[in-house]
Amino acid sequence: MEDLVVFKNITKKYPGVVALDDVSFPIHRGEIHAIVGENGAGKSTLMHILGGEIQPDRGEVIYRGKPVVIPDPHAARLMGISIVYQELKLCPNLSVVENINLGRERRTNWKEMCLECGEALQSLGAHINPRSLVKNLSIAEQQMVEIAKAISLRSEVLILDEPKSALTLNETENLFRNLLNLQGQGVTILFISHRLEEVFKISDRISVLRDGKYLATYPTGEITVDQVVTLIAGKKLVNELSQKTSRNVEGNRLVLEAKNLSRGRYFQDVSFQLYEKEILGIYGLQGSGRTELLESIFGTARLDHGEIFLFGKKVTINNPKQAIKSGFAMVPEDRRRTGLFFNLDVKDNINMSNPEEIAPIGIIRKKKVVDIAKKFVNDLSIKVGSVSQMVRNLSGGNQQKVIISRWLAAQPKIFLVDELTRGIDVGSKAEIYKILQRLRNEGLSILLVSSELQEVLAECDRILVMRNGALVANLFGDQVDKETVLKFALKG
C-alpha cells in the first residue's frame, strides 16, 4: 500500500527526558492506524509533531512522498492534517458553531453555519444545540464538539488522541461508525487509545511505542491483546526497590477505610483500606476515575454514596475544610491551577494551611511565618534564594516541595498525592521519592495516584488498579510487576 505519512528518525528531547528516540515507521494511505504504549511512551508527542504543535529536534516527516516542515497547527490544517487533542482546545465563551468555524469563517449567513454545524454533530450522534456556549456543555459534549470540528475540516489525515475519554458507550459507537465512514471516503486516521479493546475493534494496523522508542507495527488480525500488552510493558520485572512493593502492611493499624464510594459516571462502589506507614498506589489510565476518587475523598467534589472511616470512626467530608480538620492533606494534580498561589512568595505559600499556628489570635506572627518556612526549606532541601522568593520563579520540583511543606505544616495523618512528579526532572523526582519514603517511615499514610507506572511500582507497598470507574485489582508482593498491572488497567 502507498505510504501517506512516514516518520523518519524522529527525536525529541526535553530537560531530563527523551520523549522520542529515533522513531521511524510509515502510515498507509486510507488506513486506521492505532498507536499504543503506556503513559509517557511518546505517542502524543509524535502526534503533536505531525499536527504542527511542536518541532522535532532531529528527523523528518515525509508527507505525500516529500519531506515537509509543519511549523504550526494552522499550517498542518492547510496541508490536510487535523488533530483532536487529548486536552480540549475550545474557547469556552464562544458558541459551538463559533468554535467549529473558528479560524476559517466563511461568507455565509449564520443560519447556514448553524445548520451545517448541527448536521456535523448529528452525524456523530451528538444532540447539541449549535448556539449553546461551550462553557455550558458537559466534558463529553465538549469532546464531541472537538471531534466534529476536526471532521468538518474534511482533512486527508485525522489524528485522534484519546478521543473517547469522556464519551458514553453510545457516543463511542457513533464515533467509530463515523470513523469507518471517513475511512471509506479515503481519510487516513491515526488513533491513540489506552483501551486495547477499542484498538482491536477499529484499527487496521497497530504500532507500539515504549519509553520513547518505536518497537514494531503489526496488522491487527495478526497479534493478540496479550501480545500487545507484553510489548507495551516489556518482559522484565521491576526490581527497583522491590522490598518496598513486596512489604505486607496489613498487620499495621488500619487508618482509612473507604466503603462503596460512588460518584456519578466517574467511579462506582470503590472500597479499599489504607494502613499506617503505607504508600498505597492507585494506577489507572485516563478516564479510570483515579483523580476523581481522590477529589471526592478530600471533599472538593461530593460523593453520591459511600462511607469513609478514619481510625475506625465514620467521618463526614463535604468540603476540603472538613477533610483538613479530619487529618487529610492533598497535593493536587495541577500544581499551577489548584496547588500554588503564584502571586505569593515561598513563606506565604508554605503557611497557607496553618492559620492556627501563625495567627492564633487573628494577628499574623511574621517571625513565626519565616521560621516555619525556613524549617521546611531546610528539611526538604528546597532550593530558594530566600523564603521571600516568589514561588512562580522556582523550578517544578521545588514548587512541588513547597506544596508538600504547606501540608506537612498542618500535621496531617493521611497524605493524598496526585501526579506528584508530573513535569519534574529526573533529579528532582529522586529527591521527592526520598521525601515520600521518609514521611511513610515517620508514620504518615500516603495514597498516591500516578500515571507513571514505573513510579507506582517503585514507590508503593500495594497497588490498586482502576479501570472505567471500577476498582479491578489490589496487588502486592509477587503480584506486582509491570505486565500484570497493565493487563488489569488495559483489558476490558
Tell me what you see in this structure.
This protein is of the alpha/beta class. It has 2 domains: 3-233, P-loop containing nucleotide triphosphate hydrolases (Rossmann fold, 3-Layer(aba) Sandwich), CATH 3.40.50; 242-490, P-loop containing nucleotide triphosphate hydrolases (Rossmann fold). Helix content is 35%, strand content 25%. It has 19 helices and 20 strands. The chain has helices at residues 43-50, 73-78, 96-100, 110-123, 139-152, 169-184, 196-202, 225-233, 242-246, 290-298, 320-326, 335-339, 346-350, 355-358, 366-379, 396-409, 426-441, 453-459, 482-490, and strands at residues 3-14, 17-28, 32-36, 58-63, 66-68, 81-84, 157-161, 188-192, 205-210, 213-219, 254-263, 267-275, 279-284, 305-310, 313-315, 328-331, 414-418, 445-449, 462-467, 470-475. The strands form 4 sheets. A 6-stranded mixed beta sheet has the order 6-7-8-3-9-10, with helices on both faces. A 6-stranded mixed beta sheet has the order 16-17-18-13-19-20, with helices on both faces. The protein has a 4-stranded antiparallel beta sheet with strand order 2-1-4-5, covered by helices on one side. α8 (225-233) packs across α19 and α15 packs across α16. It starts with a strand and ends with a helix.
Mean pLDDT: 85
Q: How many distinct folded domains?
A: 2
**In percent, how helical is the residue content?**
25-40%
Q: Let me know the largest β-sheet.
A: 6 strands, mixed
Describe this protein with a few key phrases.
2 domains; 20 strands; Rossmann fold; alpha/beta; 492 residues; 35% helix; single chain
